[in-house]
Hints:
The chain is α/β, with parallel strands linked by helices. The protein has two domains: 1-95 and 158-259, 3-Layer(aba) Sandwich (Rossmann fold); 102-156, Helix Hairpins, CATH 1.10.287. The chain is built from eight helices and eight strands, in the order αβββαβαβααβαββαα. It has helices at residues 6-11, 43-62, 74-87, 104-123, 131-148, 170-178, 207-276, 299-308; strands at 16-19, 31-35, 38-41, 67-70, 91-92, 160-164, 183-187, 198-201. Strand 4 (67-70), helix 3 (74-87) and strand 5 form a beta-alpha-beta unit. The chain is elongated and about 125 Å long.
Amino acid sequence: MATITVDELLENGVHFGHRASRWNPKMKPYIHGRRNDIHIIDLKQTLKGLLRAAHVLENVVAEGGSVLWVGTKRSAREAVRGIAVRTRQPYVTERWLGGTLTNFRTIRSRLGRLNELEQLEESGTLALFKKKEQARLRTEHKKLRKNLDGIRDLEHLPAVLVVVDPKNEHIAVAEANKMQIPVIAVLDTDCDPDTVDIAIPANDDAMRSVRVLLNVLADGVDEGNKRWQVVVGEQQKQVEAQRREQEARREQERQRAEVTEQWQKRLREDAERKRRGPGDGSSDAGDGGSDDPQPVPGDAGSSEDAGQA
Length: 309
């Protein structure tokens, strides 16, 4: 797993917090001090939370769990989308739809509607509708794709959420808490750390700061993906071995059945011969006669001559 130093965090402006007047007192343990009325974040705390979060993400993904990346504010969208695509995980960078986690079945139905509209477009069926209806369906498709495109492959609830600015994403955090889904958050000095499971105190307003932090988290996900691929490979080997074993067992059963059928056939033939009995000559009719000695040609004439003599 890639590591990062406090100096690198400092170079990327991770230490800049909000104005002191906007702070949340619960963030006090994560604040190093104040400069020009700006709170300075303790980067040692940042590094601690960051590495812990990366380790957790690695283990979650290594066990087959999914990570939902959430960041809808302008400074986070691009970084969140890029990281999610890189790690092949779902994401939300547009408006968070209420019920995404707490009413997941409805969200899945909306995803089904999105796929249905795309099939209409791809098959050319949409062109058969009236122009007004086409315009309405295209508008619906555009809206659904904008809001749901990042989670279209999310078939189950995520194992963990990674959120940039939990204050801005308070609805997502509240839903995750209700569904008992752990939350990892990059949070500034104006946030409440009690609403998340792992806090990464940092500047969540600067794109450069957000990107460097998410890259470290993504490294953890990448390591987890590698471990998961090994697990999948072993599972596939086991499945293949079981398949071969089943095929071998079926072949043995087929051979046993074939041998059994042959013996049953012989037994039926033996029983049929016994049923006919030894006096039944039907089976020997084609052999050309019985087992009695046949007269030798010329014997009859010789007997008459002997009588006359």
